[in-house]
TrEMBL record:
<feature type="transmembrane region" description="Helical">
    <location>
        <begin position="160"/>
        <end position="180"/>
    </location>
</feature>
<dbReference type="InterPro" id="IPR050638">
    <property type="entry name" value="AA-Vitamin_Transporters"/>
</dbReference>
<dbReference type="Pfam" id="PF00892">
    <property type="entry name" value="EamA"/>
</dbReference>
<keyword id="KW-0812">Transmembrane</keyword>
<feature type="transmembrane region" description="Helical">
    <location>
        <begin position="48"/>
        <end position="70"/>
    </location>
</feature>
<feature type="transmembrane region" description="Helical">
    <location>
        <begin position="135"/>
        <end position="154"/>
    </location>
</feature>
<dbReference type="InterPro" id="IPR037185">
    <property type="entry name" value="EmrE-like"/>
</dbReference>
<protein>
    <submittedName>
        <fullName>Transporter, permease protein</fullName>
    </submittedName>
</protein>
<feature type="transmembrane region" description="Helical">
    <location>
        <begin position="278"/>
        <end position="294"/>
    </location>
</feature>
<feature type="transmembrane region" description="Helical">
    <location>
        <begin position="192"/>
        <end position="211"/>
    </location>
</feature>
<keyword id="KW-0472">Membrane</keyword>
<dbReference type="GO" id="GO:0016020">
    <property type="term" value="C:membrane"/>
</dbReference>
<dbReference type="InterPro" id="IPR000620">
    <property type="entry name" value="EamA_dom"/>
</dbReference>
<keyword id="KW-1133">Transmembrane helix</keyword>
<feature type="transmembrane region" description="Helical">
    <location>
        <begin position="253"/>
        <end position="272"/>
    </location>
</feature>
<feature type="transmembrane region" description="Helical">
    <location>
        <begin position="108"/>
        <end position="128"/>
    </location>
</feature>
<feature type="transmembrane region" description="Helical">
    <location>
        <begin position="21"/>
        <end position="42"/>
    </location>
</feature>
């Protein structure tokens, strides 16, 4: 009876944590909102044809800077985990993202990538023992439709390799999101981000060297663009993102990624003179509704103390 009472008390405490505080959701949402500026910065400040090199320059210097601040290296199994997460969240994800962007119209690439929240829901079931909720699936589908309205054009063409790359990138980021939640880090969020960025940069270096020509001598605009993508678009935003994943369920955090195409569309309208159609405005509203719905799922079912396979495997 006492054990049952303690268990009930713990479950009540867990229920009180959900839905996540609005401040945590808003802070986490800043990350994908800022990521939406990547296309604008890349096309406006950086030379074309060096996606892997740009990805390396975005990740590695930022990771080294954070490492210099924390002065803490991984220990034991965390060497392996840092490289796995660095590859999933940065190296492979960015490589596939650029392949899909080069082979598909921007709207098609964004729509294919918008499948990520649905993949996160499935992986959360497999790796975190979270239930698959109809409301969460509905929010994911609603968000995909909103992104499609926001960025797709009537003449959009499909390229099989581009579509495959977009799907692979979405699955990679989904795995990274779920495993970031599953592998509870023993260090600060700053150190955790530093490890992943540095590992991701190390994995990108040989690929960029082998498959891309030498990067031209950077101009002042190039340096400004790389600094923004590295310090703001990588170091700062991933600090916010990984902080959020420690506080928000992956299935609720992933739909926040729908905000990236919203930012990209607004920047295109404000900075590149692109027009906004009624369909895009409706898509914008659908994306915001999807994000709201995804947060509502957190109040449906509490996280039980034994919900996580990793937690359940620990000795009592």
């Amino acid at each position: 009876m006492m054990i049952s009472s303690i268990y009930l008390d713990i479950e009540i405490l867990e229920m009180q944590k959900y839905p996540a505080p609005l401040s945590d959701v808003l802070i986490t949402a800043l990350a994908p909102t800022i990521w939406g500026s990547t296309y604008f910065v890349t096309t406006s400040f950086l030379p074309h044809g060096y996606p892997l090199t740009v990805a390396f320059l975005r990740a590695f210097p930022a990771g080294l800077l954070l490492l210099a601040i924390v002065r803490k290296l991984p220990q034991g199994v965390w060497w392996f985990r840092a490289f796995v997460l660095g590859g999933l969240n940065f190296s492979f994800f960015w490589a596939m993202l650029f392949v899909s962007a080069y082979r598909l119209p921007g709207g098609v690439a964004a729509t294919v990538g918008a499948i990520q929240p649905l993949v996160v829901i499935l992986l959360s079931r497999l790796f975190l023992a979270r239930p698959i909720q109809a409301l969460a699936v509905s929010a994911g589908l609603f968000g995909m439709m909103g992104v499609a309205l926001l960025v797709l054009t009537p003449n959009a063409a499909l390229d099989p390799i581009g579509v495959a790359a977009g799907l692979a990138g979405a699955v990679s980021m989904a795995f990274g999101t779920v495993l970031t939640r599953r592998w509870v880090t023993p260090v600060s969020n700053l150190a955790f981000t530093a490890w992943q960025l540095t590992a991701g940069g190390i994995l990108l270096a040989p690929v960029a060297f082998l498959f891309e020509p030498a990067f031209p001598a950077p101009t002042a605009a190039n340096i400004l663009g790389i600094a923004y993508l590295g310090l703001i678009g990588a170091a700062f935003t991933y600090l916010l993102w990984f902080r959020g994943l420690a506080r928000i369920e992956p299935s609720a955090a992933a739909p926040l990624g729908f905000l990236s195409p919203v930012t990209a569309t607004l920047l295109g309208w404000l900075g590149l003179g692109q027009s906004l159609t009624p369909a895009q405005l409706f898509g914008f509203a659908m994306v915001l509704a999807s994000v709201w719905l995804s947060q509502r799922t957190m109040s449906v079912r509490p996280i039980r103390p034994d919900a996580s396979p990793e937690r359940a495997s620990r000795p009592a």
